[in-house]
Amino acid sequence: MAIAATIGMFDGFHLGHRTLVESLKREAGKRGLATAVVTFRDHPQNVLHHAGQKRICTLDDRIQCIADQGVDYLILMDFTPELAALDSTAFMMLLRDRYHLRALVVGFNHRFGHNRSEGFDDYRVNGARLGVEVVQAAEYAGEYAPVSSSIVRRYIAEGDVEAAMHRLYHPFCLSGTVVHGLKNGRKIGFPTANVGGYSPQVIMPANGVYVTLAQIDGGDWLPSMANIGTRPTVLTEGAISVEVNIFDFDADIYDRRFAVRFIKRLRSEQHYASLEELKQQLAADRDASIRYFLEKNINQII
Fold first, then answer.
1. Could you tell me the CA-to-CA distances from 26 to 92, 140, 148, 266 in Å, in that order?
2. How far apart, in whole angstroms, are the C-alpha atoms of residue 49 and residue 112?
3. What is the pTM of this model?
4. Helices (H), 148-201
5. Which residues pair with residue 162 across a beta bridge?
C-alpha cells in the first residue's frame, strides 16, 4: 500500500513531534494514503561523530510513543555511514522504491540528506521528479513554543523537569530495576528503592530532590519523591544514585522492574550535619510533595 511518511528521531516525542504527526495524518487522509513514521535506532550524531548524544527516552519508549499516535506503520532504520552519504533525492528514492512512498511531510525546519544546504523548496522540486509530493508541516505554536528535543534535554539536565514535562506532554521517565543500596533511608523512616539498570544513554536530571511518581512492574503510578546525587551526608565519595521513597509503602521489591516519572524539582542536594537533620529535611520534602499532589490532578500528570 502506498504511504505518506515523515522522518525524524522523535526523541522524547514532544509537542512539536505531535504537531508533525497530526499533519502527517491529515495529509495522508486527503490523499487516501497509509501513514508511516521513519525513524532511526541511534542518533545520527552518535553514528557519524561518536558524539555520545544523550537521549530523552529509550528506543522502546520512543516506539511506544509513536505507536500511541495511531500511525499505520513505523519504519525503523539503522543510520549507517552509507545511509548518511545519500542526498535527499536518493533517500526519497529509497523510501519510494522500498516502501511505496507517495507523500513526504517534513517539519518546518527539518533537514535530511547529505547536502544540508538543501531546504524545503529543493525537496519539493526533487520529490516531484520522483513522483513524491513533499508537504511542509506547520510549526508548533502553542503555549510552550519553541520546543525541540535539544531544548527538552537542556531543561532535564538543569533539573527543570516541570518545564520539560510541559513540552513533552508527559513527565520525563527513568526505567530500570530495584537494586540493593546502603539501607540508610530505612533507618531514619524513609525506605527507598534504589534504581539501577537504567540505560546510560538516557539523560540524567540534575542532582536534587524531586516530586515523582513510581511504578513497580508496570502497575499503578504511586506518589513518591526521589533523590538524585552522591548522598553527601552518608558518603564522603559516592557515585550518582537514584533513590525513590514511595509514600506509605514498605515492601521488598528488589530486582523488580521500576520506573520513576519526574514531576518537579524541590531543591538541590545538600550535605547535612547528621542523619537526624537529614530526616527533618526529608519530612519537609515529603510534606511538600504531598501538597503538590493534593493541588494537582494526578490523572492529568500521568
1. 20, 15, 22, 41
2. 17
3. 0.91
4. 149-158, 161-168, 184-187
5. none
Cell digits for 38?
A: 521513519
Taking the CA atoms of residue 161, residue 163, residue 166 and residue 170 in that order, the dihedral angle to the nearest 10 degrees is -10
For residue 233, is pLDDT > 90?
Answer: no
Q: Is 151 left (phi over 0), alpha (psi -120 to 50) or beta?
A: alpha
Pairing outcome for strands 3-7 and 101-106: parallel
Write down the pLDDT at residue 50: 66
Burial code of 42-51, b = ≥16 C-beta within 10 A, e = fewer?
ebbebbeeee
C-alpha cell of residue 294: 493534593
- Cβ-contact 223, 263 below 8 angstroms: no
DSSP SS3 for 256 = coil
Residue 232 has a pLDDT of 66
